[in-house]
Amino acid sequence: MAVMGVQVVVSLLAASVMQKMAPHCSFARWLLCNGSLLRYKHPSDEELCALAGKQRPKAKRDRRMNGVTDDKPLSVPRDIDLRLDTSPITAVDALVLRYFLEYQWFVDFAVYSTAVYVFTEGYYCLADPQKETNIGVLWCLLTVAFSIKVFFMVMRHYFRSEEGGERSVCLTFAFFFLLLAMVALVIREDYLEFGLEPGLAGVSSNLESILKQRGWEWTLPLAKLAFKLGLVALCSFLGACLTFPGLRLAQTHLDALRMAANKPLTQVLLHVSFLAPVLVVVMWIKPISRDFLLHAPMGKQTVQIMSDSAYNTARLWTIVGLCLLRLVVTRHHLQAYLGLAERWVEQMRKEAGRIAVLEIQRKITRIYCYVSVVSLQYLGPIILTLHCTLLLKTLGHHSWGLYPEPSPLPPAATAAPPRPRGEDGEDVRAAVEQITGVLGGIFTPLFFRGLFAFLTWWVAACQVVTSLFGLYFHQYLAAS
């Protein structure tokens, strides 16, 4: 095993560049602060009083003459002709955003992780280093872990809300996704082709052979049940975390369509990007995806359009392309969210009565300050889906179509016999090789195929459920 190979050098270089270049060159900061996003500035007290037809009283005597006391906040009629000024978001403006530093670090890390993965894929394609560990897999695993951490951070923010409605929504969807995950895991492979059952069977048989050599007993049904219960718990947690990102996606999708009313191409891109999770879910439903393409009906005969490996490759490229498409329309969704300030003002003008000046300013400012949270909610599922797909390709021994797909069935794992004692460096290297060999034999590519195929499908399924519910909520329930 190479201790300081090319991959390690590139990985250390990427980490160093990410740390040194973050204050100067950041993709996450550019995404928000490139001048294309316009924020709405809250009006001052003087502007609101002028629109209300009165001058803002400053002295106590003037305040009493205008009917404003110290314990009564300054208020204006709701139907004033308020027009909000816009300003491009700059790097200085972004410093006041909620969770901006977490957003910048997470998105930049995902970009560097993808770059390292692309390099390792090219390195393995050209050099084919058999004894080196794929560092790109480690970066992708860290990105998946950080994605879940970011989702948990945002969900924890909702749980701390004083209103408490968000907490109830998260708990309700967590229970719903718990039931949905149980249903998905009991569906036969003939309908949902994750490959979890063959993968678990291979892991169990390999582990059983190793443990029997050491005189340990192994209970197969109990281990499979424990793994599936843990997977169901993870699915419920992910579903709860993806609830508000899905609801927010539905809202920004509707608003982005209104803003692009005269741009048919933009509307088509928005619709396709919104339906991207549906396409991902369908690609794992075997009767209407793989079976249809491998045995396409042509009159009284069936025609094979592509092979199994070609379908796996096409599915990987399709998911990557859909993730890139959703990244392209990011600006439209973020601008649609920022436009909530203007929509709120229009709704306020339709109401009667008076409203406190401070409430107007707080509402408009709050919408802008949470744009980084909305960015995390929009980009988080994209990053999670993309890196689960990359792990599915590499650990599942799929191919990008540039070279033949390797076999997912390596030789069965066996406990290596003890070696004679040598030097300390050789002993450590031999121990590492023995451990990695045993783990590689237990957790086979067939197991990783099933695991990451299911996780990729599950993230897409959660987005489908929450975004469709969000469409129904924002179009019918919120309007009523």
Textual characterization of the structure:
The structure is a single chain. The chain starts with 5 loop residues before the first helix and ends with a helix. α6 (135-159) runs antiparallel to α18, α15 runs antiparallel to α18 and α16 packs antiparallel against α17 (357-369). A two-stranded antiparallel ribbon has the order 1-3. A two-stranded antiparallel sheet has the order 2-6. The protein has a two-stranded antiparallel sheet with strand order 4-5. It has 480 residues and is mainly alpha-helical. It has 20 helices and six strands. The longest helix has 33 residues, at 445-477. 67% of the residues lie in helices and 4% in strands.
Helix and strand topology:
Layout: H1 6-21, H2 27-33, E1 38-41, H3 45-51, H4 60-65, E2 75-77, E3 85-88, H5 100-126, H6 135-159, H7 165-186, H8 196-213, H9 220-241, H10 243-259, H11 264-274, H12 276-282, H13 290-294, E4 296-298, E5 301-303, H14 308-328, H15 330-338, H16 340-349, E6 354-356, H17 357-369, H18 371-395, H19 424-442, H20 445-477
Antiparallel strand pairs: 1-3, 2-6, 4-5
Helix pairs in contact: 1-5, 5-6, 5-18, 6-18, 7-9, 8-20, 10-11, 10-15, 10-18, 10-20, 11-14, 12-20, 14-18, 15-18, 16-17, 18-20
How do the SSEs run, as a string of H and E? HHEHHEEHHHHHHHHHEEHHHEHHHH
What does the overall shape look like?
elongated
Rg calculated over all Cα atoms: 27 Å
**Percent of residues in beta strands?**
under 5%
How do the strands of the widest beta sheet line up side by side? 1-3
Low-confidence stretches: 412-416
The separation of the N and C termini measures 65 Å
| Secondary structure: number of strands | 6
Determine the structural class based on helices, strands and strand pairing: mainly alpha
Characterize the largest beta sheet: strand count, sense, and whether it forms a barrel: 2 strands, antiparallel
The averaged pLDDT comes out at: 84
Number of DSSP helices? 20
Helix content: 55-70%
